[in-house]
Amino acid sequence: MKRRTWILSALGATGALVVGWGVLPARSRLGSPKLMLPTQGDVALNGWIKIAADGAVVLAMPRSDMGQGVHTALAMLVAEELDVPLGRVRLEQAGADSIYGNVAMLVASLPFHPLDSEGDKPAKIKLAEWLVVKIARELGINATGGSSSVADLWDPLRMAAATARASLVQAAAAAWKVPAHEITVREGLMQHPSGPSAHFGQMGPAAAGSTPGHISPKARQDWQLIGRSAARTDIPAKVTGQAQFGMDVRLPGMLFAAVRMNPVLGGAAPSMDTQAALAMPGVRQVVPLAPWGGGTGGLAVVAINTWQAQQAAQAVKVQWPAAGAEAADTARIRDKLLQALDTESGFTFHEQGLPQKAEQTATRRIDALYQAPYLAHATLEPMNCTAQVKDGKVEIWVPTQVPQMARAMAAKVAGVQEDLVNVHVTLLGGGFGRRLEVDFVGQAVQVAMACKGAPVQLVWSREEDMAHDFYRPMHLAKFQAAIDAQGDVSSLRIKSAGDAITPRWMARAAPHLSGPIDMPDKTTSEGLFDLPYGFLNQHMSHVATRSGVPVGFWRSVGHSHNAFFSESFIDELAVATQQDPLAFRLKLLKDAPRYAAVLQLAATQAGWGQPLPAGRAQGLALHKSFGAIVAQVAEVSVEQGQIRVHRVVCAIDCGTVVNPDTVAQQMQSSVAFALSAALFGQIDIVGGVVQQSNFPSYPMVTLSQTPRVETHIVPSTRQPAGVGEPAVPPLAPAVGNALFALTGQRQRALPLVA
Amino acid sequence: MQLNINGQSLNASADPRTPLLWVLRDELNLTGTKFGCGVAVCGACTVHVDGQPVRACVTPVSALGNKQIKTIESLGTAENPHPLQAAWIAEQVPQCGYCQSGMLMAAAALLDNNPKPSDADIDAAMTNLCRCGTYQRVRAAIHRAAPAMQNPAIKQGGAR
């Protein structure tokens, strides 16, 4: 296999970061106790763990919980190593030090072929990964995304907790004058057979400052918590209405702001007549808004409650600057992508064998064009941020996936140093990638600056949220397969086109680190260039386009549409060569046994090939993303002109599992999320203006439309991989393939139609 | 203006046209009731008015008069949960949790009116949107809670 192209693109993806950094010294992620602020008699043992006076464990939490259960999973790792009940671990928001940065997420951005990055890795891949780890450690970007939280913190958190435990045991051994190895720890209580016992809180001060050596986390067979379903710690507050989302922050003297943005994406603030709005009851002021963080300009109205602010925002008489002739238009963008596919060669993400030769000697060729629309995130909690600017300091309360980027944005808008900004991360009412952006943070701080020290909560209406997203980009892909004289598929060529997200996100989120906007971005081709199937000859390339629409990371990113393209086309090949879709895939997975095992498990559990009730059919799909392999079998029918999905069987290999019930939750979640997109999801833009505005025009599945989802986990001792996203990509092709089996109609565009 | 909320008479000074949602959230600091769409589609703002599920985002406070308003804050507590809240915990329903107040209030109204709902009854009554896709567990939790609701003490409002 030729690896040159991967290495080149790897350097493309990270090249801007590599330059100037060189080789950096290795540093532990244990961190100094100074990173955790002491409160009420607790003692920090390292950068992650404090011991409270009552023996509770306080964990520095750098990741955001947006529903994926990561606050529970990460606390489980710590409880396991310290031998305390899960309920004894309290969370405290982590600071901004680089030990809290997300290394795994950056490493995952390397465009390596999965079959090459499993097992014994080639030296070049090891070198590239090593370099990126160094760079990621130095940058310390704290982000919750890429299904990476457990994968990233698996080793650091267990090491931090194991080290803390050893310090505490060492302190008890010294106090009791007994050998440390004779002390047992159960439920946070240390005990020596000769009698003395103490809880962690009693030994915290004595343990501080000690640095025990030769620490390693528990052996797998000693786990009490990891691998067993635990009740999520955040659920009691979520069923009593007590959980604090961004919208729920309440401060003395707080004002409320509503925004009204230029309908044209990326447009500027209007000229306005505010007289009528200011005359309305409870209205304090109108603030023109600059376009922050790659967003759109507009205005905000500040009032004594959100509704008054919303009413007054509509009462402002505005004249928006005219949209240019280049304003985004989805019909035109589609034509441009099509043209790009025909005229440009793009960047090669993967090449093996001699595809051109195979094509020349083919007896038959199969061509197909696939497409996917723009999509909005539509988190149920709309974008919001609460801010206070007072005495040269800035305080923000924000549901965000990127607290340090929120801090940098607040500092920029307020014109202060970053260390004068204090960020409180609340719970997130959904994230899905939308809260990797900080446009609304800039707005809130700008409005707070006009409020003379009063705190202000800025909330978007659903309509603003829908019409001013950073959308999943439209993508098109052209497939060409060659069939040889034996009737086998001898080559596969895929060329895709669409806007690259990562370089644009870097440019708006971390401009000092960003490279050229069109540099190769793995997310454009993931799910196309990295297929596990053993086609001898392959060529996968992507043409990066510039469509002028703000684009962002949408749950499972490029995989979300590329898996629909590739797994639907694989199904087409099975049909064209008159083979069962399962048998066809298994034959091509001889060198990918993990994939084959997952696929086989899903098929067996779903009863693939067995008779179904009349009017129903099954379809399957297999896809790897974020380190996890997921296969799904969907059972569908068409009833009264509507596609109905009755049952989805999921099999997943995500390495070591921390909380199995969370895996099942995420399979159910991903199926519902992906089904909404597959059946209904489409954002249209005309003259720069998004045409959808609220749930009636951008629907999502309801309870009655939700299939029964079954989860089967492949036991594994590998490092943990992601679970929040990997079950999204296979759903659309599984449903599409089932529809083909049912109707004989091949669907090559999303959303699917009955 | 006096409003009868969770058994208490509370004074609200907002414009009478203001939807109940914003009086609850912004004036009375009862933030358990959520804003999702503002057009009575998503159900995140579901509360009870005289025992019926109502979408607070389109219900002006002027329409309420003396009617009894019940929000998630009075459904139950961590110590003394409503059977639905206990079932929600047992089934591990919430993910992000944002829609769950409205989901629970809709489910509570359903069980008040129909103590043993079928799947079809649940399909018809539970129209709230959940972006995380907790629907399958919502259904299971309603089925789990239904028998517990038969307890006469609970039926008469003892646990609420």
Question: Nutshell version of this structure?
Answer:
By secondary structure, chain A is α+β, with helices and mostly antiparallel strands. In chain A, 33% of the residues lie in helices and 21% in strands. Chain A starts with a helix and ends in an 11-residue tail after the last helix.
The name of the CATH superfamily of the largest domain in chain A reads Aldehyde oxidase/xanthine dehydrogenase, molybdopterin binding domain
Assigned CATH class of the largest domain in chain B: Alpha Beta
Residue share in β-strands of chain A: 15-25%
The domain count of chain A comes to: 3
Could you say what the CATH topology of the largest domain in chain B is called?
A: Ubiquitin-like (UB roll)
Description:
The complex is a heterodimer of chains A (754) and B (160). By secondary structure, chain A is an alpha+beta fold. Chain A is built from 22 helices and 27 strands. Chain A folds into three domains: 31-102 and 140-239, 2-Layer Sandwich (Aldehyde Oxidoreductase, domain 4); 246-323 and 383-459, Aldehyde Oxidoreductase, domain 4 (2-Layer Sandwich); 330-375 and 471-743, Aldehyde Oxidoreductase, domain 4 (2-Layer Sandwich), CATH 3.30.365.10. Chain B is of the alpha+beta class and 160 residues long. Chain B has two domains: 2-74, Beta-grasp domain (Ubiquitin-like (UB roll), Roll), CATH 3.10.20; 83-155, DNA polymerase, domain 1. A five-stranded mixed β-sheet of chain B has the order 2-1-5-3-4, covered by helices on one side. The radius of gyration of chain B is 15 Å and the shape is globular. Residues 155-160 of chain B have low confidence and may be disordered. Classes of the chains: A alpha+beta (754), B alpha+beta (160). At the A-B interface, helix 8, helix 10 and helix 21 of A face helix 1, helix 2, helix 3, helix 4 and helix 5 of B.
